[in-house]
Amino acid sequence: MAYTLVSADGPQSVPALLHRNAKQFANAPAYREKEYGIWQSWTWAQTREEVEALALGFLELGVNEGDFIAISGRNRPYLYWAMMAAEMVGAVPVPLYQDANAEEMAYVLDHCGARFVVAGDQEQVDKVLEVQDQLSQFERIIYLDPRGLRKYDHSALDQYRAVQELGRENRDVHIKELETRQAKLNYDSIGVMLYTSGTTGKPKGVVLSNRNIIETAKSSSAFDNLRHTDNILAYLPMAWVGDFIFSVGQALWVGFCTNCPESADTMHVDLREIGPTYYFAPPRVFETQLTNVMIRMEDASRFKKWLFDKFMAHARKVGPDILDGRPVSSMDRAKYALGELMIYGPLKNTLGLSRVRVGYTAGEAIGPEIFDFYRSLGINLKQLYGQTEATVFITAQPDGEVRSDTVGVACPGVELKIADSGEVFYRSPGVFVEYYKNPESTADTKDAEGWVATGDAGFVEQDTGHLRIIDRAKDVGHMADGSLFAPKYVENKLKFFPNILEVVVFGNGLDACTAFINIDLTAVGNWAERNNIGYASYQELARHPQVMDTIQGHVEAVNASIAEDEMLSGCQVHRFVVLHKELDADDGELTRTRKVRRKIIGEKFADIISALYDGSTSVSTVTEVTYEDGRKGSIAATLEVRDAKVFADTRKMAAE
Q1: Quick one: CA dihedral 83, 434, 587, 546, positive or negative?
Q2: Which of 75-89, 261-275, 329-343, 521-535 has the lowest mean pLDDT?
Q3: What pLDDT does residue 2 have?
Q4: 6-280 belongs to which CATH class?
Q5: Which of 100, 147, 488, 534 has most Cβ atoms within 10 angstroms of its Cβ?
Q6: What is the CA 587 to chain-centroid distance, rounded?
Q7: Phi and psi (nearest 5°) for 374?
């Protein structure tokens, strides 16, 4: 090419990294996708050709510098290429949550003023067409999967591969313009715009520059010694900053291979086939995997269950020490090796985690017992702490310094400080440019010196430098008696139990803590089948007396544990209800990243909260729900309100 993409200091943009990899790792695999049961693979050289063809097609369609191109669908190489092609022509890629409903999608498309949408399939196309009248700047949809779209009006629809062919056919016409636009890209050019999950209000468009992306990818890859021979499985939402950095930022910087599963239903099988060496999953995924393991063990023979329990007890005792290279006796090592042969190895293979060299979890706190379970198997699972506004990385756990109660030390290039209020602030090369069209929120979040407010309360351990997060700063409060209220701490303890899927704890400013609980339908349903208990719905199973008794036992066990913590003993759950429906993003109760929207839940279920505090033993309620096809309906139910045993602070009693 006739122009320079890489400065003396290295690549200055995402397209520059792609061009570098096409030369440096030309024949190495860059992206894989399983389609129709067969893995398809593209080298870095082939990937550059695919991206360039799409970029030339964008120019043929009239994409201008500064345009916003929205991208919606499941994880596929073609959609990652669309993001790269967008930046290649000087436009801004805006990935959307594929499970967002039409109205949620309309807000983002209108807010950023997207002219073009790259849609993965008919479902995504339909959502855009449904709201196109609300979009002032929208012009065309480029769709990837043509199934179901043959009879649609194609006046504003183009097939992805047809756009690429347009680009190839008109290469001579547009190549100089493409080269010119790429040559303009530098560290300060916008690399991507990602929308926040909107926990407390409307999502905000977080503008990230090439500097943010490349510097973060560079430092985080060095921190964990990532290699171009590594493999990851890209299955998390493409609109989430973590997926963007892992599957685009780090993948481009290091040159490793990004693998896309065939579908959500085949993800676990695909995970086993790929055997990733670098793996990320939010706590919910690890919790679900562990729940499935425990369900299978309940169905196993008495001898197999005894063997599993025996070796897992030993793994919990010495596994983390062996993983971290600490001293372990020869006898314990020999017993662990036998466990690896009989239990741990086959289990890791079943989970698809046999080859994981670096594993991370983040997004919210993971239960210590769950975290320790995976590390006891020899899986190098660690915790990191990050945000969209930080281009993910704020803190991470170095090898050999992994603990369940911290989120690690400041990542390379990151500075931390704790405000007098206890809120955590950071400053780094990954700090976002701005919130798009929202200078007020930008100023509230990032000060003139570049310090960013995380919204989380925590403290840095003086002797280790590890950061400990207590809770969301806005959620931390005090009970009526002045004792500390930290709902997430309690919720995470309860979610350790396989029977419990979600928890929302209330109590700020009140004289007692109470809780909403969602059962895990898979785990509890399996128990019901094994015990010949029939049920017709989630609601019926949730109110079964034995299920209620089991959940009460879990609540009281957690209360006993919390009672031992002098600072948080006031957070014991006095009363609870098992909700008649699962909390759902489609109903506005969770964000698309599965974070609880406390304010909305508090308003929506105000009658149930009142019953928790007025002494009622039951409450009748009617709740609006959204079905999968978008229709609205309602669920009526009478819920049992239960009291839970609370315990005295054992440490205070001992002191007295």
Answers
A1: positive
A2: 521-535
A3: 35
A4: alpha beta
A5: 100
A6: 19
A7: -70, -40
- Helix (H) / strand (E) element for 130: namely helix 122-131
**Is pLDDT at 616 greater than 90 in this prediction?**
yes
Q: Is 227 exposed, middle or buried (0-12, 13-18, 19+ CB in 10 A)?
A: middle
φ/ψ (deg, to 5) at 216: -65, -45
pLDDT digits (tens, 9 = 90+) for 147-194: 999 999 999 999 999 999 999 999 999 999 999 999 999 999 999 999
Question: Domain locations in the chain?
Answer: 6-280, 281-379, 386-474, 477-655
The mean predicted confidence, pLDDT, of the chain is: 92
Share of the chain above pLDDT 70, in %: 97
* pLDDT at residue 550, rounded to an integer: 94
Q: Residue 246: helix, strand or coil by DSSP?
A: helix
Written as one letter, the residue type at 313 is A
pLDDT at 272 over 60: yes
Chain centroid to Cα 544, Å, comes to: 32
Query: How confident is the model over 208-212, as a mean pLDDT?
Result: 98
Contact 614, 622 (CB under 8 A): no
- Check: CB of residue 505 under 8 Å from CB of residue 513: yes
3-class SS letters over 27-81: CCEEEEEEECCEEEEEEHHHHHHHHHHHHHHHHHHCCCCCCEEEEECCCCHHHHH
Half-sphere exposure of residue 656, counting CA atoms within 13 Å on the CB side?
Answer: 6
> What are the phi and psi torsion angles at 278 (to 5°)?
-125, 120
> Does residue 580 come out as left (phi exceeding 0), alpha (psi in the -120 to 50 range) or beta?
alpha
Q: Which CATH class is domain 477-655?
A: alpha beta
Look at residue 493 in the predicted model and tell me its pLDDT. 86
Question: In which order are the strands placed within the sheet that holds 231-233?
Answer: 38-43, 29-35, 257-260, 231-233
How far apart are the C-alpha atoms of 133 and 116, rounded to whole Å? 14
pLDDT at 48: 98
pTM, entire model: 0.84
> Which secondary structure element, helix H or strand E, spans residue 196, and what is its range?
none
Burial (CB count within 10 angstroms: exposed 0-12, middle 13-18, buried 19+), residue 70: buried
What is the average pLDDT across 247-254? 97
Question: What sign results for the dihedral spanned by CA atoms 74, 79, 626, 148?
Answer: negative
> 284 versus 406: which is more confidently predicted?
406
The superfamily in CATH containing domain 386-474 is: Luciferase; Domain 3 (2.30.38.10)
Q: Strand pairing of 484-485 and 477-478? A: antiparallel
Helix (H/G/I), strand (E/B), else coil: 174: helix
Nearest-CA neighbor of 212 among 237, 240, 192? Answer: 192
Cα dihedral: 651, 652, 653, 656 (round 10): 120
